[in-house]
Specification:
single chain, 324 residues, alpha/beta, Arc Repressor Mutant, subunit A, Rossmann fold, 2 domains, seven-stranded mixed β-sheet, two-stranded antiparallel sheet, 15 helices
Length: 324
């Protein structure tokens, strides 16, 4: 209940109304178009959990925690906790785990009316919260990746499905000799260009519109798939890897960043696996299963390097007997 109360708080922009000087609950209700009595009960709950505090009869103010939900705060919580966010829609899909268990199919469309990928392409607010989610993922591993591998012999990195370019930004900031290309589908590429328009990285970071299911630009030294393959069943994952193999040719490498299933620590791994099942029909895999996927795409695992948060960097290259 608390999570949904916070989502109501964020969706109605109550933190911004209070931050602008309105503290009277009935007046807040009028400004956001809510029922005054119902909102007062939501407010009472939010006081109880520490987002608000009473400052007088019928008056409230933001606590330090509540202030995190003011629009423009660096935490981006005002966007993350929207009712129309990725998180809320994923929670709805989780409630339909029985459907996925019985059919083997993702439950997202059953819970939300349409597949996640279709909604992502059509809904700007949903796409914004997904971008934020992916940027948080990159924030946890970006610097690790920049320092876990010796990039001195690499010139050009291509990030496939890299969102708004956050991962490449980390790499290019830490290694000034690198050039980067972000490959994203149409709407995501447009958002990335807008975000990167004033970047100090300038001509070193370019955005290319495309799909990792189609032929990819050739010539990069490294093709990165960061938190991509777990979104897809084996058939699609192999197709993506084959496209990387084609583009990488004889000398290029494929970098895969995922959180492999850990037989010695099953709970977090298997929770992630069930989420991917109900969200998009994807799956988490063990290192052995990733090796098998790579082999099916004429790639072989050369090395693995640990990153924070259970992530691993898997480094692959084309198998010698199939090189041109």
């Amino acid at each position: 209940m608390t999570l949904n109360a916070v989502r109501v708080f964020a969706t109605l922009g109550i933190a911004d109304v209070i931050n602008s000087g309105t503290s009277d609950v009935p007046e807040i209700a009028r400004k956001v178009g809510a029922d005054s009595d119902a909102l007062s009960r939501v407010v009472r709950h939010l006081v109880g959990v520490g987002l608000l505090r009473y400052s007088g009869q019928g008056q409230v103010e933001l606590t330090r925690v509540g202030a995190l939900l003011v629009k423009g705060h660096p935490s981006l919580f005002s966007e993350i906790f929207q009712m129309n966010s990725v998180g809320r829609r994923f929670d709805a899909a989780i409630e339909e785990l029985l459907h996925s268990t019985m059919t083997g199919e993702p439950a997202y469309a059953r819970a939300n009316g349409e597949s996640f990928w279709n909604q992502l392409a059509a809904d700007a607010q949903l796409a914004q919260t997904f971008d934020i989610d992916m940027e948080q993922h990159v924030g946890s591993i970006g610097l690790d990746l920049a320092h876990a591998y010796d990039w001195s012999k690499i010139s050009h990195v291509m990030d496939l499905g890299g969102g708004t370019g956050a991962l490449l930004s980390h790499l290019l900031t830490e290694h000034r000799h690198l050039r980067g290309t972000l490959v994203e589908y149409a709407d995501a590429a447009t958002r990335a260009r807008e975000i990167l328009a004033n970047s100090v990285l300038g001509p070193r970071l370019t955005v290319s519109e495309g799909s990792f299911f189609d032929p990819l630009p050739e010539g990069a030294d490294v093709y990165v798939l960061s938190w991509i393959l777990h979104d897809w069943a084996d058939r699609e994952a192999i197709q993506i890897l084959k496209r990387c193999r084609e583009a990488a040719g004889e000398s290029g490498q494929v970098f895969i960043i995922e959180r492999p299933l850990d037989p010695n620590n099953l709970r977090p791994s298997t929770e992630d696996d069930l989420r991917m099942l109900v969200f998009v029909g994807g799956r988490e895999r063990s290192l052995e299963e990733y090796s098998q996927l790579l082999a099916s795409a004429d790639l072989q695992m050369e090395n693995t390097l640990p990153l924070r948060g259970r992530f691993k960097l898997m480094i692959a290259r084309g198998t010698p007997h199939r090189r041109r």
